[in-house]
Amino acid sequence: MKMINLVYNMKNSRPGTKNLKIAIQKEGRLSDQSLRLIRESGINHAQDTRRKLISTGENFPVEILYLRDDDIPQYVADKVADIGIVGENEVLEKGRKVEIVNRLGFARCRLSLAIPQSERYDGTGYFNGKRIATSYPRILQQYLEARDIKAEIHEISGSVEIAPGIGLADAIFDIVSTGSTLIHNRLKEVEGVAHSEAVVIASPVLDTAKKKILEDLLFRFQAVQRSMNNKYILLNAPNENLDEIVRLLPGIKSPTVMPIYEKGWSSLHSVVNENQFWDIIEKLKELGAQGILVIPIEKMII
Ligand code: ATP
Ligand code: MG
Questions:
Q1: pTM (2 decimals)?
Q2: Series of mean pLDDT values for 10-residue runs along the chain (302 residues)
Q3: Which ligand 1 atom lies nearest to the CA of residue 28?
Q4: Which residues line ligand 1 (CB under 6 A)?
Q5: Could you tell me which of 28, 25, 105 has the C-alpha nearest to residue 69?
Q6: Can you tell me whether residue 94 is helix, strand or coil?
Q7: Which helix (H) or strand (E) holds 235?
């Protein structure tokens, strides 16, 4: 009943039926970063005091709906929301008609099968005749069927990792990131089944006006993401090694190289991807680079 009311209220929400409705997780691992992405995209929004589950963009035509992450694929498929920010794991599990339109790179995790540490594991045949506890029955079912494994799936909604310890199951299929929860529960990961990260999903049937808002929004999201993944780098380099250093730091188009007062040296400005950062720094030092400064980038439009 509560859900029906919510759907009704959201479908009839005013103002702004022309606003693009974005569903994000109300409270949980995705909430902070989803809100940060929206905020850093320059969208100010005030929470409506009468409708706590919705806030409206003040300088961009969006409405933000705060929901449980499990429900987001359904809300987008049912067009209650136009788009959503959600874990790919929930998109896969729910199997609703939605399109992944952007990958966001946060909330990275994997869905894995794990068994008690004391068990010997000799391949997926191990799971024949076993009871597996999970909150992702659909993904697990597909995985088992594809391998012709006959196991019993026990669907539970949370704290899956304790199921083997209390005798509810022989194994689990759940989200793993660092693996510390598994170790804590004396389990070991034996099969990685799928990778997941936060993604933007969209209804496949948006009208032209909303498609345009989505395009503008994704443009902003991508600029923010790029800036988060990249750093501005400045350094002094001996001229004889400039060509090699430029090869390491190709930048967006090409780095800026300027002479400095000291003869035989130049100042070089470029952009470096955070993932390659430490590798490149080592090589730069070997090539005689000095005074290396690394600065965060606020926005990056290319
Ligand atoms: P809700 O109350 O909204 O249903 P929840 O308890 O189902 O919340 P969270 O634990 O907040 O969900 O996780 C939300 C999403 O974050 C997951 O669906 C997954 O995509 C991702 N996630 C979960 N655990 C991890 C983790 N350990 N590391 C990285 N990402 C994770
Ligand atoms: Mg959930």
A1: 0.86
A2: 47 62 96 95 82 89 96 97 98 97 96 98 97 98 98 96 96 96 97 97 96 98 92 96 94 93 96 89 95 93 86
A3: 11
A4: 25, 28-30, 68-70, 87, 89-90, 107-109, 175, 177, 196
A5: 25
A6: helix
A7: strand 230-238
